[in-house]
Design brief:
The structure is a single chain. The chain is an alpha/beta fold. The chain has a single domain, classed as Alpha/Beta hydrolase fold, catalytic domain (Rossmann fold). Helices cover about 30% and strands about 20% of the residues. The chain is built from eleven helices and nine strands. It has a nine-stranded mixed β-sheet, with helices on both faces. The chain is globular.
Length: about 350
């Protein structure tokens, strides 16, 4: 099985900016589609609410609306943080295309699984601002309606036209545009996170937006961290059949032809290097194929090391609940099913605090 190389020689490491652009264009052209540069007539930010919660927490809600040619579309984001922040703080942004607010669920009905997917109190207590990026309104996660949003202003054009994953990544970057102007935020310590389809998006967002300092992708599977070559479970055929709106039209040409792809997902991870990167899998998640997620980490680890960073401290696929720690890229396999749990955050938060120099 032939696997494309991230780099071919030391010269490409020394001139990584050039090689990086070549790899980035491959993912634009063959998988996620090209994110357009849209010139809007107006962009407006609305502060929709400020709620003081017991025990010293604050919840701020914002609406962000884009106007062009007498059309307008918007999205919402929520900030959850500890009262009395005196210095610009690091942040963890959750990409949320699920039409569900984990913050709202936690505050209203305390649904256990949602609070584990994005445990905002745990995140705030660790020194971060938790930001929930509700990107579903600007691009619904539905193959029949995903174009009823920002794509009404900027439709997908041609076989490499942008996909839902690209729209969600773009929308997250537009939220970052606002956050970097907010004095509460340290613009040099922004982490983007996503679980499942949002994990795929977090990796593409991190690849697309260099303002992002660190990326965490949980159970991201096909079109995320998992290699296409040799993958079982969620393959190109199955993902493009079940979720055709997640990728560009060109990607469908590689159904049962993974060997012909000019890139593979270890190269997506290379677009985040040398920034901190955390990948997690679940032992019972055969759909995402943890071994293939780990393979990408092993392959990109060589690039981290060539860049003078610490790669994976072990290249041996781990047993469940035995995190591979110590590198600037880290991985763990959690025992259990698809998703993100408190155990995952207990591994990730110390990694981010170390990498981002948070006391």
């Amino acid at each position: 099985m032939t696997v494309p190389k991230i780099y071919n020689n030391q010269s490409e490491i020394n001139h990584w900016g050039i090689r990086r652009q070549e790899i980035f264009r491959l993912f634009e052209d063959y998988e996620y589609g090209k994110i357009p540069d849209i010139k809007f007539d107006d962009v407006r930010l609305f502060h929709n609410g400020h709620l003081e919660i017991k025990d010293g927490y604050i919840l701020d809600t914002f609406g962000l609306v884009f106007f062009k040619d007498k059309k307008y579309y918007g999205l919402q984001y929520e900030m959850f943080y500890k009262e009395g922040l005196k210095n610009a703080s690091p942040s963890i942004l959750q990409i949320n295309p699920f039409s569900i607010s984990p913050i709202g669920y936690m505050l209203q009905i305390n649904q256990k699984n949602m609070s584990e997917i994005f445990p905002v109190k745990m995140i705030a207590d660790s020194g971060f601002i938790a930001v929930n990026c509700c990107v579903d309104k600007i691009c619904p996660d539905d193959e029949n309606t995903y174009k009823y949003g920002i794509m009404q202003i900027e439709p997908a054009k041609g076989p490499a036209g942008w996909s839902a994953i690209s729209v969600w990544a773009w929308a997250t970057s537009r939220i970052i545009d606002q956050l970097v102007e907010n004095p509460l935020f340290d613009s040099s310590r922004i982490t983007v996170y996503g679980c499942s389809r949002a994990g795929k998006t977090a990796l593409w967002c991190g690849a697309s937006d260099l303002r992002i300092k660190a990326v965490y992708a949980a159970v991201s599977g096909c079109c995320g961290a998992a290699m296409h070559r040799g993958k079982t479970g969620e393959t190109i055929e199955k993902i493009t059949s079940a979720f055709p709106h997640w990728s560009c039209e060109k990607f469908k040409e590689f159904i049962n032809k993974e060997e012909e792809l000019p890139m593979d997902q270890h190269m997506l991870l290379s677009l985040i290097a040398p920034r901190p990167l955390y990948i997690s899998s679940a032992s019972l998640d055969s759909w995402s194929h943890p071994e293939k997620e780990f393979e990408s980490c092993v392959r990109v680890s060589v690039l981290y090391e060539a860049m003078g960073k610490a790669g994976l401290s072990s290249k041996q696929f781990p047993v469940p609940d035995s995190p591979i720690k110590g590198g600037d890229i880290q991985y763990h396999l959690r025992a259990g099913e698809h998703g993100c749990r408190i155990y995952d955050w207990e591994q990730v938060i110390p990694f981010l605090k170390r990498e981002l120099s948070i006391n």
